[in-house]
Amino acid sequence: MTNPGMKCSRCRRPASHRFPQHNLRLCDACLEIFTERQVERAVKKWRMLAPGQEVVAAISGGKDSLALWQILARLGYRVRAVHISLGFGEFSQASLDACRAMAQRLDAPLEVRGLEDWAGAAVGEIALANRREHCAVCGSLKRHLLNRLVFELGADTLATGHHLDDEAGRLLGNLMRRHAGYLERQWPALEGMAPPAGGGVGLARKVKPLVRLSGDEIRAYAQSQGLPAHLASCPRSKGATLTNYQDALELMEQRMPGTKRDLYFGFLRQKAGPPPPPEPGGLCRQCGGPTRQETCGACLLLRRARETAARRAGQGGAA
Ligand SMILES: [Zn+2]
Ligand SMILES: [Zn+2]
User: Fold this and answer.
1) Distance, CA 51 to ligand 2 centroid (Å)?
2) Nearest ligand for residue 303 CA
3) What per-residue confidence (pLDDT) applies to 239?
4) Which of 30, 76, 277, 291 is disulfide-compatible with 284, CB 3.0–4.6 A?
5) Ligand 1 centroid to residue 73 C-alpha, Å
6) Shortest-distance ligand to the CA of residue 30
């Protein structure tokens, strides 16, 4: 929403971006400075990364993760970009193409892993066997695999492209459903756990450097920078619970600019500080990763999928 003659709030040149939540109008050059500074401030404020630190970045190929990759690299961090291919046909191919184009643009390496290859089954089958929402299963497997990769790559911190809309939407959901545990752990930077002595998989530190930016700010940045982002949203995410909360907040944001910021940052301000670091529990019998149960959540999902497949094969044989 811009009008001709609109001037940049910073430099008074013609502006092409308007952000009512900040009462701010920006030209392309000032948008670049604004966006990258927001990331710099978030990294500092929540002590996400030490200067020049190595960090694994989860890159989906969408605008958020590509912006994350470029900005972290520009701020001097050593970014190890990792793309998990989900196996959703054309959508996944376009996502991978976007990541490769970005790697070329930044002249940086890209690690690619297939979720199906690793899991031994399609996400849809695993979700069905577990009677769980597709997005929840996909997210849980992706997080598990990304966590392993962080340690495989010899790093300890994972950065993701979650931004203000994601965090505010998640917060609204957690508040409405009284998820005390999730509320306690909602924070822009979470401490991890070192791998057990002798090596293996620990729990990666998780940081969200884009939390000070909303989706429309990142979209404007990605467009004005010409990032080769894949803009379609995941074809399997329709009707996902989180999206509903984000849509509800978006509606309020339209009528009351700043709602998302007020909700999320007000919540963080009320907290005493970051949640306590995770307490060491046991190790998963299946994968050796950290867990509070005998078997971790991701390994349980995979086990049920294998059991269902075996039962089906058995029935097929008997018929
Ligand atoms: Zn300007
Ligand atoms: Zn496991």
Assistant:
1) 33
2) 2
3) 63
4) 291
5) 23
6) 1
The predicted structure's pLDDT at residue 319: 44
Which pLDDT score is estimated for 317? 54
pTM over 0.90, yes/no: yes
CA 16 – ligand 1 centroid, Å: 9
What stretches in the chain show pLDDT beneath 50?
Answer: 319
Provide the token pair at 271: 């907290």
Q: Which ligand is nearest to the CA of 25?
A: 1
Distance 310 CA to ligand 2 centre (A): 20
How many whole angstroms from 8 Cα to the centroid of ligand 1? 5
**Ligand that comes closest to the CA of residue 298:** 2
Ligand 1 centre to CA of 31 (Å) is: 7
CA nearest to 289, candidates 151, 182, 156: 151
Task: List the one residue out of 66, 17, 69, 77 whose CA is nearest residue 44.
Answer: 77
Contacts of 225 (CB under 8 A, 6+ apart): 32, 67, 70
- How far is the centre of ligand 1, averaged over its atoms, from the C-alpha of 61 (Å)? 28
